[in-house]
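Recap for those who missed Tuesday's class. We walked through two folding examples back to back. For each one, the amino acid string is listed first and its predicted structure tokens come directly after. Nothing is annotated here on purpose, so try labeling regions yourself before you check the end of the notes.
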Amino acid sequence: MGKETELEERGRIVIPKDLREALHLKPGQKLLIEQRGRELVLKPAADKDRFLRELQGCVKKSVIKPLDVKKIWEKV
């Protein structure tokens, strides 16, 4: 069952505390919002720096460097 919140005059919403905690959402964290028909889907955005840290050491021989991946990601 969903939670109810209110849309403020400036378009802001508050994500209930129990949902923020369950999803480990932190203040200042980036979120993606998508429209699917008449629904809005809100999800955490990928953390580029975390992705880069996790990528390091995964590939032994590569033609692309992790910092190049970060630059490509930032262009998207």
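Example two. Treat it independently of the first, because the proteins are unrelated.
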Amino acid sequence: MILLTIVGAAAFAAFAPVSAPTRVRSSLLARFKGLFSTPSATASVAYAEPKTTSDAGWTLIHCEDPAAFREWLGHEDEEGLPYRPGEYPSLGSHLLIELFDCDGDTLKTETCVGDTMRSAAVESKATVVEQSFHEFKPYGVSGAVIIQESHYTIHTWPEHGYAAIDLFYCGGTVHVQKAVDVLIERFKPKRMKFLVVRRGSQPEVEG
């Protein structure tokens, strides 16, 4: 029942279209950030705020506007991801990311995927404890980077250009947006979907 709740909520998560890949690596990050800016310096765009819902003890955060989600994600506080008005504190935050239409070559090998996930952890200021990745034949890589603050995991489908990624962490020392930036730069998705799940909400753990 809980799994169905999470999957159903994911349908409302943000989709972020990405422009055609460029061969100039130095411009990748700037290109990604540009996706979430206004069309011009003088344009005025009203963004829809991320929404918080609760169901059976789960707090889920979704946003139909990718620009608003990106802006919100970049404003972390001492608890990690920022809390919405009326939301209970939690022990951890679980950011589920789906990457579509990636560069398939970046998803094929244990070495490439493992290096990307470790870099995402390091850039987000997480404390890496251990990592393990496995390359399947003919396709796909699964693996995890264990961090002191919890874990980052991934499974890839290179033949579909798709990757499923979970960034689970606690505390305010992890800057998760920097991990997302690394994933975008390395895997080059053309579309994304986000869902935030709060883990260990205060009423549940103190109940």
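Answers for example two:
Residues 74 and 177 are 6 Å apart (CA to CA).
The longest strand covers residues 90-100.
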